[in-house]
Amino acid sequence: MCVFKVSDTLRHSDVFADLVMPQMMAPRAGWENLSEKVEEGRFGSVEECRAVCVGREECRQYSFDEGEGVCRTNVEPRLGRAAALGRRVVSGWIEERIREFREGMEACENGSWPF
């Protein structure tokens, strides 16, 4: 659980680190993480799809459609949403790369708002 002091400024990086990122630390069945790049060929398992992503240094997430054998990957991490009813999709993230993404987020230059 995260606790913010009244004087703290809530930033996007805080929301990502405390609320979104913890949900990206394990594969999720029935979940669509909105990966966009459709990989060529038909895949037989989520493990094969994950291996494609791991093999690409810039890839941070993947999704595997079990019904169609389609693997999708993405560079930008996205949490996504529940898969449509009847779709058998498993989504996953490369946990270490998600952590590195978080650590590489630039700090805000100004901690206050102009209004």
What would your notes on this structure say?
The chain has 115 residues and is α+β, with helices and mostly antiparallel strands. The chain has a single domain (22-103), classed as Hepatocyte Growth Factor, CATH 3.50.4. It is built from three helices and seven strands; from the N terminus they run H-E-E-E-H-E-E-E-E-H. The chain has helices at residues 12-20, 46-54, 95-103, and strands at residues 28-29, 31-32, 37-38, 61-65, 70-74, 81-82, 89-93. The strands form two sheets. Strands 1-7-4-5-3 form a five-stranded antiparallel beta sheet. It has a two-stranded antiparallel sheet with strand order 2-6. A hairpin with a 4-residue loop joins strand 4 (61-65) and strand 5 (70-74).
List the SSEs and their pairings.
Elements: H1 12-20, E1 28-29, E2 31-32, E3 37-38, H2 46-54, E4 61-65, E5 70-74, E6 81-82, E7 89-93, H3 95-103
